[in-house]
Amino acid sequence: MIYEYHCRKCQEVFSVQMSLAEHDRGDLICPRCQSRDVDQRMTGFFAQTPRKAA
Ligand SMILES: [Zn+2]
């Protein structure tokens, strides 16, 4: 899985490839400023689910 993050401190946007277990730990820092103040961004995975035509 590839997750995309946005650093609130330096505004860096970066992608990180990691397992679901690693993601669940939430142990992530910005590669640019080493801050932990990062937000996960929507990567589009959820939007790609096909809808059923009721
Ligand atoms: Zn940063």
Secondary-structure map with pairings?
Blueprint: E1 2-7, E2 13-17, H1 20-25, E3 38-41
Antiparallel strand pairs: 1-2, 1-3
The chain binds zinc ion.
Zinc ion is lined by residues 7, 9-10, 12, 30, 32-33, 35.
Structure description:
The protein starts with a strand and ends in a 13-residue tail after the last strand. The protein has one helix and three strands; from the N terminus they run ββαβ. The chain has one domain: Rubrerythrin, domain 2. The chain has a three-stranded antiparallel beta sheet with strand order 2-1-3, with no helix packed on it. The model has no long low-confidence stretch (mean pLDDT 84). It is an alpha+beta fold. Strand 1 and strand 2 form a beta hairpin. Bound molecules: zinc ion (ZN). The site of zinc ion (ZN) has 8 residues, from loops.
List keywords for this structure.
54 residues; 3-stranded antiparallel beta sheet; 3 strands; 11% helix; binds zinc ion
Q: Average pLDDT, to the nearest integer?
A: 84
Low-confidence spans: pLDDT under 50, at least 5 residues?
none
Backbone CA Rg: 14 Å
Number of helices: 1
CATH topology, by name, is Rubrerythrin, domain 2
Overall form: extended
- What molecules are bound to this protein? zinc ion
Second rung of CATH, namely the architecture: Single Sheet
Approximate strand percentage: 25-35%
In short:
The protein has 54 residues and is of the alpha+beta class.
